[in-house]
Amino acid sequence: MSCKIHENHKHQHGPDCGHVAVRHGDHVGYLHDGHLHCAHEDHYDEHGIEISDTNPDGCVPHDCKSHETSHVHGPNCGHPAVPHGDHVDYLVDGHLHHPHGDHCDDHGPLTMA
Fold first, then answer.
1. Does the predicted model carry a pTM greater than 0.85?
2. Of 98, 93, 22, nearest to 58 (Cα)?
3. Whose CA, among 24, 40, 48, 95, lies 20 to 30 Å from 13?
4. Is residue 50 a contact partner of residue 83, using CB atoms and an 8 Å limit?
5. Alpha-carbon dihedral 72, 76, 77, 82, rounded to 10 degrees
6. pLDDT in tens, 33-83
7. Which residues contact 50 (CB under 8 A, 6 or more apart)?
8. CA-to-CA separations, 39 to 9, 29, 36, 74, 80, in angstroms, rounded
9. Considering only CA atoms, which of 50, 38, 31 is closest in space to residue 90?
């Protein structure tokens, strides 16, 4: 498997770095600027959350009580962006929100480290 290296990454991720830690397979990755960074040798790789039964990619509308119905997810909405398959979701109270038309789809829980 080849690396998708995040070039020029000077920040050191760790338990107190300020970024959300996510369990990713057999290691921990950190959500940073819309990417999931995973330490690998002397660099960080960019990973995404795999789509599975736990994290569906279909339309699964839900009535979320975690934020106002008028809230719009996007780059500056205050929720960490999570690469999920071929799109971006937003982490809200431990689960992935995917903006879809006039609602958010629930793309499942995200295991925090």
1. no
2. 98
3. 95
4. no
5. 100
6. 888 988 888 888 888 888 887 888 888 888 777 788 788 899 889 999 999
7. 85
8. 11, 7, 10, 26, 19
9. 31
